[in-house]
Design brief:
Helix content is 44%, strand content 13%. By secondary structure, it is an alpha/beta fold. The chain has one domain: Rossmann fold (3-Layer(aba) Sandwich), CATH 3.40.50. The strands form two sheets. Strands 3-4-5-6-7 form a five-stranded mixed sheet, with helices on both faces. Helix 5 links the parallel strand 4 and strand 5.
Length: 267
């Protein structure tokens, strides 16, 4: 299962996985792009199913999880790749369908909720892997104003959401010890030639193929079979923002995330 699979680096990874014999569940927002991906994969001899959802809505995330459960009883690989950049479709502070700051909602909360909803399938597919596609652009989370109602900037919102993914990955690795599941995250490459980068007005300096190489390493490389809770800068193990290794900060984020997604109350 890979989110954000219909464009950019996600599309390249989906096609590579299918070419290696994986049955791919490909998520995206656009039915047109999703079905064209499925056709490309089928024409190359692979198998893929498109699942549509807007991750700016937690209800849509839940619907996506139910769609995945209807497709399979076990997942061996979950890649949380979908995201929006510092500008997105429209610049300025925006909120999700649930009233959360949009980048925090799409880049982090959606993956947090989807992962938890799909954990029974991932455990059934063990040995399995979870890959969170983060970024080298990271900024410590301000727990006094997580939704950035003061001093907002798109880049600050993006960096905070990406660091949140890393804190989640470290926590997830601890939670899943002994379950036959590893969870790692990465910065796939700097300023790839993606829609996200083009929208920001930045000139690309790397390719989606390079980013796909990095994601594929975390997804399938045998050398990572017993390594979990790590952050990679492209192909190399690295260190994230210090807040990622702060147990108190991770606990704060976990408690907040469980509340915001409804998981704390068993919803």
């Amino acid at each position: 299962m890979i989110t954000g699979a219909t464009d950019g680096v996600g599309r390249v990874v989906a096609k590579r996985l299918a070419a290696e014999g994986w049955r791919v569940l490909a998520h995206g927002r656009s039915e047109e792009r999703g079905q064209s991906l499925v056709r490309e994969i089928a024409q190359a001899g692979g198998k893929a199913t498109f699942l549509a959802a807007d991750l700016a809505s937690l209800a849509e995330v839940r619907r996506l999880a139910e769609a995945v459960k209807k497709e399979t009883g076990a997942l061996q690989l979950l890649i949380n790749n979908a995201g929006i950049g510092s500008v997105g479709d429209r610049p300025g502070r925006r909120e999700s369908a649930d009233g959360h700051e949009l980048r925090f909602a799409v880049n982090y909360l959606a993956g947090f909720l989807l992962t938890h909803l799909l954990l029974p399938l991932v455990k059934a597919g063990a040995p399995a892997r979870i890959v969170n596609v983060s970024s080298a652009g990271q900024e410590a989370i301000d727990f006094g104003d997580v939704m950035l109602t003061r001093g907002y900037s798109g880049s600050r919102a993006y960096r905070q959401s990406k660091l949140a993914q890393i804190l989640f990955t470290v926590d997830l690795a601890d939670e899943l010890k002994g379950a036959g599941i590893i969870a790692n995250c990465l910065h796939p490459s700097t300023y790839m030639n993606t829609t996200m980068v083009k929208q920001s007005g930045t000139s690309p300096i790397s390719s989606v193929e390079t980013g796909a190489d990095a994601i594929m390493q975390l997804a399938v490389a045998p050398k990572l079979e017993d390594k979990s809770g790590l952050y990679f800068n492209v192909m190399s193990e690295s260190r994230a923002n210090p807040q990622a290794y702060d147990a108190k900060a991770r606990a704060q984020l976990r408690t907040l995330s469980l509340e915001l997604t409804g998981l704390a109350s068993g919803l």
